[in-house]
Amino acid sequence: MTIAPHLIAIYQQLLDLSQGMLRLAADGEWDELIQKELEYVSAVQQLARSTQDAAPSLQTQEQLRPVLRHILDNESEVRRLLQARMDELAQLVGQTSRQKSVMGAYGKQGSVLVPRESV
Predict the structure, then answer these.
(1) Pick from 19, 11, 20, 14: which is nearest to 64 by CA?
(2) How far apart are CA 85 and CA 94, in angstroms?
(3) Taking 80 as the threshold, does the pLDDT of residue 26 lie above it?
């Protein structure tokens, strides 16, 4: 028994999308990553519909297991990169909040001199 061709196509599409998402996350292309993620979710929904009525046979599941493992590894790495980006943004927000606090405290003292960037 061989894998149903439509399942192969969907899993291949998911793998391609997950690799694209990983590349975008690694490159810091966050807006493009969101667009790619929308395509990915659509492909996952398509897979769910394809297997809703009848689950793939055990043999098919075994044949697809390496592809699924690769997809899951990609997802895990994308999540790790997203978490690193969120941590970076949280640090920047915290830094901005501290700067506002300092400016507010000095502002109560009168005029505040702020260094300017030289051109």
Answers:
(1) 11
(2) 14
(3) yes
Helices 30-52 and 5-27: crossing angle in degrees, nearest 10, is 160
- Tokens representing 38 are 């929308």
CA dist 4 and 56 (Å) reads 9
Q: What is the pLDDT of residue 95?
A: 83
> Residues 74, 22: contact at Cβ < 8 Å?
yes
Location of structure tokens 């507010």: 104
- pTM, two decimals, is 0.73
93-99-104-105 Cα dihedral, nearest 10 degrees: 130
Band the pLDDT of 111: cuts 50, 70, 90: low
